[in-house]
Every structure is written in structure tokens, then in C-alpha cells.
Amino acid sequence: MLPRTVDHYQEQVTRMLETERYGEAMETLEFLLGCEGQNEQRRQEWSTLLDWLRVAFPGGSEDAYGNEAVLAGEEPEDRSETLRRRTLEKQREDSGYEAELLRRAKAEPLTEKGQIALEQLAYLEGSDTDAELANWLENEPLHPLLQFRVLQTLRRRGASGGVTLRRDGALLELEIERTPLTPQEFPPAVDDVLVRVADQTDSGDPSLFYFARELWMQFMMASYGTNDYAVLIRGEENELDAWAAALHAQASEAVEGGGRAEEIREAYGITGELRFRCERAEKALKTFSRGGMARG
Prior knowledge:
- The chain is built from 14 helices and two strands; from the N terminus they run H-H-H-H-H-H-H-H-E-E-H-H-H-H-H-H.
- It is mainly alpha-helical.
- It folds into three domains: 3-56, no CATH class; 76-178, no CATH class; 183-289, no CATH class.
- A two-stranded antiparallel sheet has the order 1-2.
- Strand 1 and strand 2 form a beta hairpin.
- The radius of gyration is 20 Å and the shape is globular.
């Protein structure tokens, strides 16, 4: 495969990750890994990213629409509009369709089918569904990422008010209407961490930054409302440096196999008390990336 072609596919994978098209990203990475003659380091990066996606999104490469036409390959805006139109058509044909989507979302919560069911529910307005979603959110031990997705669905449906989530023995009091729907809606400190990592990685290893960005946004969704999140979004420079160094180190360990933690800390000026903050952040990111974050 020509270098220009490889670059094109890498750009496509990055765009798929940015628009949460994880099934397509997995399929593209599987295709790239099946091509011969590629640089071994690049192949290792693809393999690492694919393995992480499989853990984070089990079932993500399945056809989420059964026998229906798949929306893969469409622009995000077109995909959203197509999904909205199909959802409303289905509801007109079947008055029980909203209840079926709710059942599917609960039965297959961490598969792509379940995630798309949540997305479809955002286009409907059944009077009982908001209460059903809120009750599910508050009373079931859901994975933190799923908790965040349900919050997003409730906000898109126009719901408001407070919900109480259980997380690692603590109670989180959150307001539905303040839930970020896009990366741009998170507080500036979230992007400030990525800017720091980009400054350290873009020229030498842009593929590592792509992985770090995806890991960071997933971690922010899963951490939403926690103490870690509250401390981070205050935007203190030292705290941002600590999280940036920790994110860079975790991405490096995942993509390159580790061994650079001290070098990375030095690059971000992590010394003294700041080292403790960095190590705490590294532990949180490592726990999340290994799928060990508490479910309730």
C-alpha cells in the first residue's frame, strides 16, 4: 500500500473516532492490519488501538440495523438526519417502537445496537420514557460511560432536573440540562489538557496524540461529575500539567509499550508535589483504560 494511501486511511480512522463511528474504525483497522508491507511500529499502533476499541465497545463492529441499510460512510450530519427520519417512520408504523428501543437499550447497553437505540430515543417524545430512563440511570449499576450516554439522551429529549448516580460508593448529584452533548460543550480545561499533549506529540508522533485524544474524551465522559472531574475543570495550571503528563504517559504505554514515564514527566515539568498529582492521575487513567472503573 502506498504511503499516501496509508495516510488517507489513518485520517479516515481519526475522523471515525471523532464522530464516534467505532464499528467503522474497527473494520478499517482490521483491513489495514491485513495489508502486507507496512512499517512494524505503525502496525503495532493500529493493533493496540483496535484492541482498545474492542474492549471499550464490545460488539461495535456489528451491523446495528439488522437487515436495514447501514449508515456507515455517511457524513455525521447526514447520518443523524437519516437516523431521525427512519426512527420517526418506524414509530408511525409501530406504536410500540419507542418501548422496543428502550428495551433494546437496556438489554444490550454496551453494544453498538444498544447505543444506537439510545440515540434513536432522543428523537422520540413518549411521556413515560424520560421517567423510565431516569429510573434505570439511578437504580441500576451501569458502567460510567453508559451513565453519561443516558444523561445525554435525556437532555436531547428535552428532559431537565436532577438525578442521583451511585459511583464507587459515592452519590453524584447531576443536572440533566448541563450534560455536555459534544466535546466543545465540556469546560475549557478539558481541551487545555489536550492542547498540552498536542504540543508534545504532534511533531514527533501524531498517531499517539490521536489515541490520547480518544482516551481522554472517553475518560471525561466516564468521570463526569466525579471529584477528579471537579478538580480538573477548575483549570489550575499545575493540575492541567499533571493530567496532561499522565495522559501522555498512559497513551505512550498503550501504544509503545511504556518505559517513558520519567521522560514524559520531565517534559511537562512534573516535580515535587506535582509528581503526586501526576501519579494519582496516571492511576485513574490506567484503571479506566483497563476497564476497571467502578460500575455503580
